[in-house]
Amino acid sequence: MSDLSVWICPVCGELLTESENSLKCSKNHCFDKARSGYVNLLPVSRKHARLPGDNPEMVRARRDFLSKNYYQHLQNALCDAVRNYLPPDGVLLDAGCGEGYYTKKIRDSLPESCSVCGVDISKTAVDFSARQDKHTRYAVGSVFHLPVDDLSCDMLVSVFAPYAGTEFVRVLKPHAFLVMAIPSARHLWELKQAVYDNPYENQVKDYHLENFRFLEKISCEQKIFLDNSKDIQNLFQMTPYAYRTGASERERLQALQSLGVQTAFEILIYQKEA
Ligand SMILES: [Zn+2]
Q: Where are the alpha helices (DSSP H) in the chain?
């Protein structure tokens, strides 16, 4: 792992210096590393719930599903996109890294000289990331208040994570890259059809982003086959509509024993304007 650290103190904003077990700023605010290696940089004042972010049950569902590599095509496409644009000694931040499924694979596909950091607001997810990936720096933090220094990153990766334009612009160097993965219109269509009376397509917004130049869209589609109820339910848990599903729809979901379903993602590449 390169020595380069991008973390800043969530109390005063000074750069943090890393030692073996903790990180400290020049004003002596000190943050201990957890046993798994991550550091919690989420200030208590920004912690609106006891366990902010995805709860352990959601993290578990996503982890179990992803561990079966149903989304390996997206993982590979992301690694290719990152390698195409990141300089050989680049600093990459995964903002909203979840349990590190994409982060770790990206880290493993890059030269040693690159530095990779991951931030997520879910402590459960970050702890899992840090346990299975010792070559990436992980911190608990919000993408809307990234514990990351100004103009410190050559690339920011955002996979199904909230878009925080002002923060992304702040932490990226001039002409640095933003790589976003979003679901396209027909993503998981057969799953929606099986569960809902009136399924609707995902809305894909126009690609314009303030302060960024749009460079490229990479489509990544593959039909996947789920042969058991557990995987189908885990996949459903990962979707944003899992929250607003009624009892009869849940029954339909639970009755599904196998499902062929289209996955459809778009990887969007942007460059920060000078
Ligand atoms: Zn400080």
A: 56-67, 72-85, 101-109, 123-132, 165-171, 189-195, 229-238, 247-255
Q: What is the pLDDT of residue 63?
A: 93
Query: Tens of pLDDT along 128-168?
Result: 999 999 999 999 999 999 999 999 999 999 999 999 999 99
pTM higher than the cut 0.85: yes
Residues whose Cβ atom is located within 5 A of ion ligand 1: 9, 11-12, 14, 25, 27, 29
143-163 exposure pattern, b = at least 16 Cβ within 10 A, e = fewer: beebbbbeebbbbbbbbbbeb
Question: How many angstroms does the Cα of residue 220 sit away from the middle of ligand 1?
Answer: 42
Ligand 1 centroid to Cα of residue 31, in Å, is 10
Nearest residue to 151 (alpha-carbon basis) of 169, 180, 171: 171
Type of residue numbered 134: K
Paired residues of 261 in beta bridges: 224
Q: Fold for domain 17-272?
A: Rossmann fold (3.40.50)
Instruction: Quick: pLDDT tens for 214-261.
Output: 999 999 999 999 999 999 999 999 888 777 788 889 899 999 999 999
Instruction: Using the mean position of ligand 1's atoms as its centre, give its distance from the Cα of residue 165 in Å.
Output: 25
Cα-based distances in Å from 197 to 204, 237, 264:
22, 19, 21
Rounded to the nearest 10 degrees, the angle between the axes of helix 247-255 and helix 229-238 is 140
Ligand 1 centroid distance, CA of 176 (Å)? 27
From the CA of 129, how far away is ligand 1's center (Å)?
25
Q: Assess contact for 274 and 173: CB atoms under 8 A.
A: no
CA 150 – ligand 1 centroid, Å: 15
pLDDT reading at 5 higher than 80: no
